[in-house]
Each structure stands twice: as C-alpha cells, then as structure tokens.
Specification:
With 60 residues, this protein is mainly α. 62% of the residues lie in helices and 0% in strands. It comes from Novosphingobium lindaniclasticum LE124.
C-alpha cells in the first residue's frame, strides 16, 4: 500500500467510514458461505449501523 492509499484509509477511518476492501477480505477469509455486499450496500449498512440504530439515530 502506498502512502496516498494509507493516508486515504486513515482519513476515512477517522471520520467513521470503514474500508470496503478490508470488509471484502474479511468476508472472504472468515465467512465464505455468506454473500458479500456491493459497495453501495456496504456504505448504507455502515451508515445505518452508525447513525440509524434501533430508534432512527435518536438517543432518546
């Protein structure tokens, strides 16, 4: 991984955007029986997990 890729990855993680390529590697290695989400579905899933939650993103 070159310096630009490393910095881009770090910046995404700092703002809470996980890396899709890491997700694909993890799913392939540890959960080969499960389908892999495409980038759009992965992004939506991560946004929902971070902001949506059980009550629509509200704390109360």
């Amino acid at each position: 991984m070159n310096m630009v890729q490393t910095l881009r990855r770090m910046a995404r993680l700092m703002v809470g955007v996980p890396d899709y390529d890491d997700y694909v590697r993890h799913m392939t290695a540890h959960h080969p029986e499960r389908p892999i989400m495409d980038r759009r579905a992965f992004f939506r899933d991560r946004q929902e997990a971070r902001y949506g939650g059980k009550n629509g993103g509200r704390c109360c």
